[in-house]
Amino acid sequence: MRPLSCPMCGERTLWKEVDREKKGFSVGKSALGGIIFGPMGLIAGGLGKTRVYYCCGKCGFEHEYKA
Ligand SMILES: [Zn+2]
Q: What is this structure's pTM?
């Protein structure tokens, strides 16, 4: 489930869905998400075929979510 605001800093305006393909997928950021969210984060990142990628323009937090 996608949060309506950045889970790190609570920013709503700058917490936006971005085009993962255009932005380029970062393995490092994915691993970081796994660390932050634990096994659930890795499952969400590895199994979902339809995913959305969110990036916070305020604190820089990025994460993938199931669409
Ligand atoms: Zn943020």
A: 0.55
